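ok so heres the complex, two chains, lmk if somethin looks off
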Amino acid sequence: MKREIIQQLFRQHYDKMQRVARSLLYDEQESEDVVSDIFESLLQGEIALIPGTAERYLLTSVRNRCLKRLRHEAIARVAANDNPNLNLNPNLNDNADDERLTDIVEFVVGHLSPQEQRIFSLRFTDGCSYEDIAAAEGISRVAVWKHLSHIITEIKRQFNPRSL
Amino acid sequence: MTPLDKKQLFRDMQEHPENYSDEQLEAMMADIDREPDAEAAWQRFEERTLSPLPRDGESLAGARKLRAATPFHNRRGRRWVFRVAASFIAVLFITGVAFAAIRLLVPLKTTEVPVLKESEKKMLMAFRVPADCKNPIVKERGDGIVITWLKGTWIQGDDYSYIEERPVCQSPFLAHTSFAKVMLDGKELDINNLPDLPASALKKMEKHFKDGRWINLITTPVQIPADVKGNINPELTILLTGTPPADAKIKSSIYIKEGIHESFDWKQYQYTSWTSQVENIGNCLKDVAIRKDHHVRVNVCRSVSQKHIDRIKKLMQENGVTNYELVRQ
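and the predicted structre for the whole thing:
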């Protein structure tokens, strides 16, 4: 993909992408790494965007990569507790992870309330701020936080080893 | 509070929001949703992905990642070239390789550095990593081959093809033999036994990174297809906005776009800057001025001050742009 287009996409979507990453990782550098990795993939031509789907693709990529990171962190933590000498390769089981991420979407649809599904989608697919979600749902920002906390905790509980 | 502590607090707030006050949760949300500095992030992104070398403080792991993420240099663009060139020169200085009077002249659409002296116009030169080299990525990549080519050389990459229009160019990326295979007329080059050829011998350079990493330097005559054009667009439109647009994430009061355009909407243009080291309007103008048939249009928005108009006129003169017009909104 041409650099000019990448720059345009970066300019348009960085804000939301960083927001999604932060709300899962809460680490400025890690969040930036995740977002940059996605643009690198585009730059290298590893991924082709279908016109009209850029934002959805970019934000979904951020969400999935962050969840993957969290899962690897959790695995590493559990493994380190069990065997401090174990050196895990974080790139192992990528295919299994990808399948798992598809399962997460199914889990959200199958196990969360309609309101939580909407909030999940607003935050992690549309990249909305807490403020925007609160306005859309007619609830307070703190309520949004609590819903999202519940959603993320449930996802982690369902998919991560021994929870986090 | 350390970043780790903050992260732990964040996790705890997520898992047990009931233990925190509304004010604490609000503060956390405000922190997460604060507007990021997209311009700085873009600068870091470009440096990270387009520079071949780790910068001060960058970890080896980061450099490895960068290496994996950087398919040598098949990218075209202006902004990061000077950063890349600076890295190259830094390597030369670090390692004691003598390239007298290497000078950066022109912002380039490809990752090349123009050189001036006849003595530097050797097509192939060996770069040796010294034993005391402290740069981990250079050490890891090992020795490399520096390639120089001249105006008229046909450059073909995975998804682009053009005829070089700049007088003399040199790859600032060292073609590290562990990273990319460099061939001369289809035969892999031995860095210990490089042929002594003038840069003018190079007729075509094929750079492929999608299917393996290899560069083929062709010295036999080539027939360049009629649809392959030069790499400098002689037409450029500059947009002066006066003040940075309020809704622009990357703040600037000057934007560019190749070709001649009438729009006064910054969103239709690409970011550039007056003074940035890695991308600035002067570099773009120098590039355009290489073409004698150049034409630059400057779209001047209503709020632009005379100071900016004088400044752009001065830059035109300094960079050799003689054919330009100012169009007021």
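quick notes: Chain A touches chain B through 38 residues (CB under 8 Å). thats all i got rn
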